[in-house]
Amino acid sequence: MVKIQYATISETGTRKNNEDAFRMIGTSDGNRWLAVVCDGMGGHDKGEVASETVADAIVNYWRKAEDEIDSKDKVEKACLKARVALDECAFNMGHVKMGTTMVMASIEGDTVTIAHLGDSRCYLMRPAVGLLYLTKDHIRMECGWEIIDRCFFSYRPEACIPDVVQFKLKAGDRIMLCSDGLYNSMTHKILLKKMMDEKSMDEIIDAYRILCEKQCNDNYTAVLIFVV
User: Fold this and answer.
1) Which of 14, 135, 177, 194 is surrounded by the fewest CB atoms within 10 Å?
2) Smallest Cα–Cα separation from 38: which of 49, 22, 26?
3) pLDDT on residue 224
4) Smallest Cα–Cα separation from 177: which of 125, 223, 117, 126?
5) pTM of this prediction exceeds 0.90
6) Position 93 pLDDT exceeds 80
7) Strands 20-26 and 152-153
8) In the chain, which ranges are continuous DSSP H helix?
């Protein structure tokens, strides 16, 4: 079993309200952890409702399925519950068209299961190796615009197809889940360098906050995890 430490940040930034949502939960024995970051989709109504609904639905499923081994099947069942919850919420609000991205990391023993939909990201770093894994954004270009083609969106079950991978963790590994507001506020090189700084996680989070305050035009959210 590995032990972890974590720090979080979620700020409104230059927007009127924060449409990001994050959750971080663990079992009492410290053997299981779940981190989720969702980013409500701009250009549509109620992004903050969509992100909160999906994040809560995934967490609720994980709590109820605590004895189920982490797997692609478990992720897909959690996503189904979240999709149904989003559709029900949209229906109750008058058939609102709303959506959210999602990235999650579930740690069970020494195994991490990473899943995502959209352009919220997971970075997995390892000492002496560097970037071990980075989620691939589900984006396509259409008429000069970036279109998120996989996400949670009301009444669009065909878009809810998560990518799922698993890795064995080692001491010293670092994981960060974040919305696009954070990684778009700095270069890829700076983000990775700060992620592996020999500083406390609170100092690293503060460094990200300073960069976002200077350069971000969006909400920004991150969950930073140290494997110790």
Assistant:
1) 14
2) 22
3) 98
4) 223
5) yes
6) yes
7) unpaired
8) 47-64, 72-92, 180-183, 188-195, 201-215
